[in-house]
Amino acid sequence: MKQLPLQNIKVLEFTHAVMGPAAGLILADLGAEVIHIEPLEGDSTRRLRGFGMGYHSFYNRNKKSLAIDIKSEKGKKLIEQLVENADVLVENFGPGTMERLGYGYETLKLINPKLIYCSLKGFLSGPYEKRHAMDEVVQMMGGLAYMTGPVGQPLRAGTSVIDITGGMFGVIGILSALYEREITGKGNFVKSALFETTAFLMGQHMAVSALTNTPVPPMPDRVSAWSIYKTFPTKDNSLIFVGIISEKHWLRFCEVFEKQDWLNDERLKTNNDRIAERDWFLPAVDEMMSSFTKEEITKRCEKADIPFAPIARPEDLFEDAQLNEGGSLLETVIQGNIQTKLPKIPLEIADTLFSLKHNPPEIGEDTVEILQNLGLKNDEIEILKNEKIVF
User: Fold this and answer.
1) What class is the 222-314 domain?
2) Exposed site from 22, 32, 227, 352, fewest CB < 10 Å?
């Protein structure tokens, strides 16, 4: 099997919730040895309910768990030993927490000058940088919630999109710093943040505002750039999205749905013409689509090779043909004995196999192995356990 890209990289992960663990997950799937540092009682994410129930199970595969009291002197010495040979440290604690605990970058780089230290926060440098933030907070203040919901009803996106993309930007920074280290031999400090990630995602809308000098309407209230680009109710009370984004698509759409009269209508000659006629044209498309079942629309769109999508729920993805036959789901055991399939990182790199190496670990599952690798004897580890330094 081909070696994974980050096979020889060692990562210490001081994280919880989503942003930090998501960054660690990507590094782990790319082959890094990721040690998740958690308290003796386990990462608090393990005990979340509601939508938070899935955090630990999804974002912690392919990692090892070291349960340790990082506030104790003995625990601190063990962490410092791990730092000596680490390539990367990832943390997403509150502002100032790592520094207060004695694990800030300025302290740890004295132990290991080659360390890449990735800090994942709510805000980058600036007047907000000491604020705490969460995904939903920055979606609201960064314009994403406004753009997602209808007018007057800001709505957060349906997943932790900013936590995840913020973690991804953290990984980009880490990979850049690792590349730079190959040249300079020195480590570096990398920071990614939720608010600035949201602002980056809003960049295209900010550009629209600059170009039009008018307020940008939320997505549900927008005039689409494409004449047909929406969700349609079907005859069998389902929903399907269809997008026509070229004149070739328009031609084939009319052919498979037998609407030659639309092709001959001078009012509908171009995409912009059709947008100008949307007041009567879109209701006509709605009426036509509602006369077909979801399966009938699917077959016609496939035949015409035009963009379409049935409206899926998360549970539908377990049986999705593309994900299953394409090998994009990993058989994973979560919370001890629940077997399921969860998504791989969405990458193909030649014949590299991104596989499951380690199910999400139990609390302290790898503590003994990690301490043995530091040179500790079994009796020394037992003493540390009895003293509640490690679990």
Assistant:
1) alpha beta
2) 352
Sign of CA dihedral 340, 344, 346, 349: negative
Assess contact for 51 and 27: CB atoms under 8 A. no
In tens, the pLDDT along 84-109 reads: 999 999 999 999 999 999 999 999 99
Q: How confident is the model at residue 178 (pLDDT cuts 50, 70, 90)?
A: very high
Break the chain into its structural domains and give their ranges: 10-201+361-386, 222-314
Mean pLDDT of 313-338: 96
DSSP codes of every residue in 310-373: E---GGGGGG-HHHHHTT-EEEEEETTTEEEEEEPPS---TT------SPSPPTTTTHHHHHHH
127's tokens: 């007047």
Alpha-carbon span 117 to 112, nearest angstrom = 10
Q: Is 317 exposed, middle or buried (0-12, 13-18, 19+ CB in 10 A)?
A: middle
Q: Parallel, antiparallel, or unpaired for β 33-38 and 63-67? A: parallel
pTM as predicted: 0.94
Residue 1's pLDDT is: 59
Q: What is the pLDDT of residues 235-264, one digit of tens each?
A: 999 999 999 999 999 999 999 999 999 999
Architecture of domain 10-201+361-386: 3-Layer(aba) Sandwich (3.40)
CB 363 within 8 A of CB 67: yes
pLDDT band, very low/low/confident/very high, at 349 (cuts 50, 70, 90): very high
CB–CB of 306/228 below 8 Å?
A: no
Handedness of CA 331, 334, 338, 340 (dihedral sign): negative
